Amino acid sequence: MATKTSQIESRLARLERELRELKATVARDKRPPWWREIIGSFKDDRAFDEILRLGAAIRKRDRKGPR
Question: How many domains does the chain have?
């Protein structure tokens, strides 16, 4: 049991260290989120409108369940 506990503690310590590193990386990155850069890029795009329409139709069909 002690071995399992020490393994868990070791894994937890590694995860905490990796999380600190990820948070530091995000804090250093001053670029805006990628999705803000593309806002509006599909405005008045008929092909994209069709993609949205078809996606909605598929989701609606899937909610009805198996045929």
Answer: 1
In contact, 39 and 45? CB cutoff 8 Å: no
Q: What's the predicted TM-score (pTM) here?
A: 0.46
Residues 6+ apart with CB under 8 A from 48: 42
pLDDT digits (tens, 9 = 90+) for 8-46: 999 999 999 999 999 999 899 888 888 999 999 999 999
Check if the beta carbon of residue 48 is closer than 8 Å to that of residue 42: yes
- In whole angstroms, what is the distance from residue 12 CA to residue 19 CA? 10
- Tokens representing 3? 């071995």
Question: In terms of residue numbers, what domain contains 22?
Answer: 2-63
- DSSP secondary structure letter of residue 66: -
Q: What is the pLDDT of residue 32?
A: 86
